Amino acid sequence: MKKLFIIGAIAVGTLASALPFRTTCGIVFQINDNYVKNATPKDLENTMSQLNYNACGTFPTRFVYYTSSTSTS
Fold it and tell me: What is the pTM for the complete model shown?
C-alpha cells in the first residue's frame, strides 16, 4: 500500500510540472516545464505541431493558449 501511495504521489507531481497539450484528435501530451521555460514561442509551436502530426496525421491550423491567473487580493 505504501509503495502504491508513493508511486501515485510521484505521478501526480510529474503531471503537475508539465504543460498539457491536447491534439486535434484528442490525445493529451504533457510537455516538460523545463523545455517550455527555455523554448521560444515559435519553438514551442513547432514542437506541438510535430506532436499533433505524429499523433493525428494533420498539422493544426491554430493554437489556443489557456493561462491561469493567481489573485493576490
Answer: 0.62
pLDDT for position 18: 76
Instruction: Report how far residue 14's alpha carbon sits from residue 49's, in angstroms, rounded to the nearest whole number.
Output: 23
Q: Over the Cα atoms of the chain, what is R_g?
A: 15
Q: How many CA atoms lie within 13 A of 30 on its CB side?
A: 10
The per-residue pLDDT for range 37-60, each reduced to its tens digit, is 898 989 989 999 999 999 999 999
- Cα separation, 65 vs 11, whole angstroms: 24
Q: Which set of grid coordinates corresponds to residue 35?
A: 523545455
Closest CA relative to residue 47, chosen from 71, 31, 67, 27 = 31
Which run of H or E residues covers position 54? helix 41-56
Contact between 48 and 32 (Cβ < 8 Å): no
